[in-house]
């Protein structure tokens, strides 16, 4: 019935068009000139020779999730950003106190999470997507793409630095003691941030999957595959190899009775990398499904799956605080100290009004 009604409305429109344009314009050969009518599936003649997976559905896929993503990202930003700031202060104190490279890497990881929350969650999803309804100039959108992908790359590869540092500390302890220092850690972190910014520049030409109605071009396929490789597949392979070597090394040492089977720093490393692999897997799967099976623009199910996958992936920017508190007693004590110092600072800056009046009366009393 829907197809019949669509066909009937199309025929009526054609009839009205022919009536308005009567008589027909004549071709120089004497034959009436006929304008080709659009096809029923809304396909573009430029892409008629493209044989592929893209379903021929005329309308754009609706946003089934509705306002749920806006509420989710608002809660995530309002809770995750203060938590990450608190984590930054606590890790900065621990890094200055112990001078361990692992704390510097965790501090850089938290800083990249803050940048991700500001650039992707606030600017990308909330401001650009919800408030402005994607009515943003293309130059602004493409520039924001560079910052978003650079923040993603920095966050992932800082975790790679942390993994390599733990591997060297456990599997090559003598070399690690001779070469590790805060200055070396700072240079490595600066190199990762600079490289992340450079690798984000090609994503200036990234196509918005919610608006991409045409079949993917070669550039689009290349950028999406680079995104999947740089953000997920290559780092996860590094995590798998190094973490496996670390676990085997610790298991051998525990059998000799030298140290506990898993130290706290190693447990944090395994937790950070495992959470990243689990939370980012849905986005990568949906991205490849969009590329080779069904597009987000045309299929509401893929649209919904990408919305959910993005929400799950962004959760990775706010869960590390809970992981640190769950594993490290030192981190919990430092967080309590930071909160206590902040409370005392606020108390000293704003004393009760009765105390101020009392002090003024005491100072003025003798003079009276």
UniProtKB/TrEMBL annotation:
| Family annotation (PROSITE patterns) | G_PROTEIN_RECEP_F1_1, G_PROTEIN_RECEP_F1_2
Q: Which keywords has UniProt assigned to this entry?
A: Cell membrane, G-protein coupled receptor, Membrane, Receptor, Signal, Transducer, Transmembrane, Transmembrane helix
Name all G-protein coupled receptors family 1 profile domain ranges. Answer: 83-324
Q: What topology in the membrane does the UniProt record assign?
A: Multi-pass membrane protein
Give the transmembrane region(s): 70-91, 103-126, 146-167, 188-207, 222-248, 268-292, 304-327
- Record GO cellular component, one term: plasma membrane
Where, subcellularly, is it found?
Cell membrane
Domain of life assignment: Eukaryota
Q: Does the keyword Cell membrane apply?
A: yes
- Signal peptide span per the entry? 1-21
Q: What family does this chain come from, according to its entry?
A: Belongs to the G-protein coupled receptor 1 family.
Provide the protein name: G protein-coupled receptor 142
Q: Which organism is it from?
A: Peromyscus maniculatus bairdii (Prairie deer mouse)
């Amino acid at each position: 019935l829907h197809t019949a009604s669509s066909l009937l409305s199309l025929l009526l429109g054609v009839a009205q068009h022919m009536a308005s344009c009567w008589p027909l314009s004549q071709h120089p050969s004497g034959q009436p000139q006929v304008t080709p009518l659009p096809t029923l599936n809304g396909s573009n003649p430029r892409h008629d020779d493209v044989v592929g997976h893209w379903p021929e559905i005329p309308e754009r896929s609706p946003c089934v999730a509705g306002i749920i993503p806006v509420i989710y990202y608002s809660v995530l930003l309002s809770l995750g950003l203060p938590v990450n700031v608190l984590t930054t202060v606590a890790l900065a104190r621990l890094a200055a106190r112990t001078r361990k490279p692992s704390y510097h890497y965790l501090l850089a990881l938290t800083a990249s999470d803050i940048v991700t929350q500001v650039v992707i969650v606030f600017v990308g999803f909330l401001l650009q997507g919800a408030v402005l309804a994607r009515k943003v100039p293309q130059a602004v959108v493409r520039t924001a793409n560079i910052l978003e992908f650079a923040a993603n790359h920095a966050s992932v590869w800082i975790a790679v630095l942390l993994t390599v540092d733990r591997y060297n500390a456990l599997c090559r302890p003598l070399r690690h003691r001779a070469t590790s220092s805060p200055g070396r850690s700072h240079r490595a972190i600066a190199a990762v941030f600079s490289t992340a910014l450079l690798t984000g520049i090609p994503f200036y030409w990234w196509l918005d999957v919610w608006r991409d109605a045409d079949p993917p071009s070669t550039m689009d396929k290349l950028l999406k595959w680079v995104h999947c490789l740089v953000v997920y597949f290559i780092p996860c392979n590094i995590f798998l190899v190094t973490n496996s070597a670390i676990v085997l090394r610790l298991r051998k040492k525990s059998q000799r009775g030298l140290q506990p089977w898993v130290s706290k720093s190693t447990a944090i490393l395994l937790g950070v990398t495992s959470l990243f692999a689990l939370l980012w897997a849905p986005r990568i799967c949906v991205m490849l499904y969009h590329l080779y099976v069904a597009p987000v623009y045309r299929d509401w199910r893929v649209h919904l799956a990408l919305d959910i996958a993005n929400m799950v992936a962004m959760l990775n920017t706010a869960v590390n605080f809970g992981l640190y508190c769950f594993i490290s007693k030192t981190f919990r004590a430092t967080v309590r100290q930071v909160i206590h110092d902040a409370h005392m600072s606020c108390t000293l800056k704003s004393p009760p009004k009765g105390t101020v009046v009392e002090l003024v009366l005491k100072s003025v009393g003798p003079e009276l």
